[in-house]
Specification:
The protein is of the alpha/beta class. Helix content is 47%, strand content 12%. It starts with a helix and ends with a helix.
Length: 271
């Protein structure tokens, strides 16, 4: 009965507490949870209307200074399959997307140790010159923070320069799970919780929207998922700058956590 009461409160628009959210993760039947989520959607938007865009994710490099335990994508500079895409190849991929009706490009990569701010600015300018109509959703929070560190430049100045070069919004990668235990355990040398939030907050203060991700299904606890969601909710209350929430299902293959099963279908639907 308590789960039913919580779901009813959510449908009516009441803000749920941490303990409510934890209980829903742990005990809410999937069908009832889905019905409540559908009711919330019908309350907030036209239920007969759905929208979509055509876009493309271009990973401009797989070289990364970080060694996150849940990542199978990164390569070192010495790996044979390490790459940085030439600008001509990136332009070609964007041209293919535009020809297919695309209006947006998600552009992100590993955190490359040798790329400088001028390289990111040049890439944005080249793409905006060739495709002024395309929305460039580019360079995640860890990429921006690393550039600021390498250039010894405030984050706000880095973002302003990227804006001037053509940046339209920022992807929400690198959030993982916004708790110190997860960041300290799985990506200790990467941007931490407070810095991730501060970079996003800075972008929002400059008029840029961003997204937020949540990497679930590894070794996080339910209360840590809830903490992640609450921190994002607090950020949105403060800035209104988050335009999308992206739950990312952990895939253990090829990572140091390959012994884990990863999330199942029910977990995917609930998250």
């Amino acid at each position: 009965m308590k789960v039913d009461v919580i779901l009813d409160r959510a449908v009516q628009g009441e803000r749920l507490r941490r303990e409510d959210l934890e209980l829903l993760f742990e005990e809410a039947p999937l069908l009832e949870l889905g019905q409540a989520a559908h009711a919330v959607r019908e309350r907030l938007v036209d239920p007969d209307e759905a929208t979509y865009i055509i876009d493309r994710n271009i990973n401009y490099t797989n070289v990364c200074v970080y060694r996150c335990r849940f990542c199978a994508f990164y390569r070192t500079l010495k790996d044979e399959d390490a790459y940085v895409l030439p600008i001509q190849e990136i332009v070609g991929k964007v041209a293919e997307t535009v020809a297919a009706g695309g209006t947006g490009i998600l552009l992100q990569g590993g955190v490359h140790p040798e790329l400088k701010l001028k390289d990111y600015e040049g890439l944005l300018r080249d793409l905006k010159t060739a495709f002024p109509q395309v929305h460039l959703h580019a360079f995640s929070v860890p990429e921006i923070f690393y550039v600021s560190k390498v250039e010894k430049m405030p984050v706000v100045e880095v973002i302003q320069r990227l804006q001037a070069a053509g940046l339209d919004s920022i992807p929400g990668g690198g959030a993982e799970i916004l708790t110190e235990r997860i960041h300290d355990t799985f990506c200790p040398d990467k941007i931490g919780v407070e810095r991730w939030l501060e970079v996003a907050r800075t972008a929002h203060s400059l008029g840029l929207k961003s997204t937020a991700t949540m990497l679930y299904g590894h070794e996080e606890r339910i209360e840590e998922r809830v903490e992640h969601l609450v921190r994002l909710r607090e950020l949105q209350d403060e800035t209104g700058g988050l335009q999308c929430f992206v739950p990312l299902s952990f895939h253990p293959e090829g990572t140091p956590l390959s012994h884990l099963p990863g999330p199942g279908g029910i977990d995917d639907l609930m998250s």
